[in-house]
């Protein structure tokens, strides 16, 4: 049953210490095949904090690992095209789909699909998406990472009533990037996304084709998330239930396998979890090339053996499966939960003309900043609310007013140190550059264009953004969305 639930959180110093120790272990990661982390004492499991990635009590798997194939989400075709405009139709509705083999689970969907259909658009072409709401509660569509007019951005209180339709206009005047779309109805976004209202929104730029990155059937979007099911295969939503969501899904399937050829693949990952952070590595520390983050291509590929994604973040890597013998089975592991999915190298590749060039893109220049702001993310134990600068979200209050075209540096601090609660930070409308993390330059994989950034307990991250090109009201919030739906969100107004 969908309901509006207040977050209930309690903590003690002893539990906070356990959480901190667990977080340190998760940061170190685990080797493939290592034993899962031990279960917490019962008291700690009862009071563990939302979003923490250090320990989830092991439970019996509902599905044998690698017993189902991972699908690739269907690309939605436009209903019509006129000039530079492409028109799409999407309906939010309930559907019963097979997630756990041999069972049907009722979920919320876009167009009856779990996850939703992929919208694959082009830079410079406007996508007009008519959303219809066939659910029995309000919804709001938001393209995460989109540079979008305020009227189409999906402000949390601009809900679409049941039975109604609305046209969202996306100009796509931005770099090629892996974005995603999801529901953003305030107080309900956590449950709506958990139950399935999410899909890929991929922006292509024809100029990128000259790089000869893997494309077509070798360009695979992978939406990762966790979930909780009862013994009748029904999804169970409880606010801040980071420990109970122990079933890991890739494109809507539990710990699936995916057949690949012995050649290069471009893998586009999005973390669509409400709270879980993934720290991924392929096989036994296989080196891969990270080529992109939230806002598109990096300046140059970064050689990585693991990559970390908090909720809402995207990372693209190129994996050369020709390094493995035909017949190999290569497991993608998470540092905490272990196997996420498996790649089966089942055939040789006749030809592979793709590559990973030494230079990928020219990052936008950083203009001179003329403004500075401080953002503090915190937790109020008294009423169990998550706050930004000491306040919880109020749609009637403008927290930050910014002149159109202004470039600012925002210093974002996670002040939830007493409870070791991780957060991240996502402003709508703008992409930003990370200037430093705890006073140190960002790692190569975080040095590109981003829209969501991890801010661990006690951490401070400085970021720079230019606010525009549209005026109006936009949200900024923690994208551990159980937190944002419990108050950790604020409103900025861009003015001419």
Automatic annotation (TrEMBL):
Keyword Cell cycle annotated: yes
Reaction equations catalysed: 4 Cu(+) + O2 + 4 H(+) = 4 Cu(2+) + 2 H2O
Signal peptide range in chain numbering: 1-26
SUPFAM superfamilies membership: Cupredoxins (SSF49503)
Residues annotated as domain Plastocyanin-like: 93-207, 383-493
Pfam short name (any one): Cu-oxidase_3
PROSITE patterns linked: MULTICOPPER_OXIDASE2, TAT
Domain of life: Bacteria
Coiled coil: none
Listed EC numbers: 1.16.3.4
Biological processes, Gene Ontology terms: cell division
Keyword entries, A-Z: Capsid protein, Cell cycle, Cell division, Metal-binding, Oxidoreductase, Signal, Virion
GO molecular function, one term: oxidoreductase activity
Subunit structure: Monomer.
Family to which this protein belongs: Belongs to the multicopper oxidase family.
Official protein name in the record: Multicopper oxidase CueO
Lineage, opening ranks: Bacteria, Bacillati, Actinomycetota, Actinomycetes, Micromonosporales
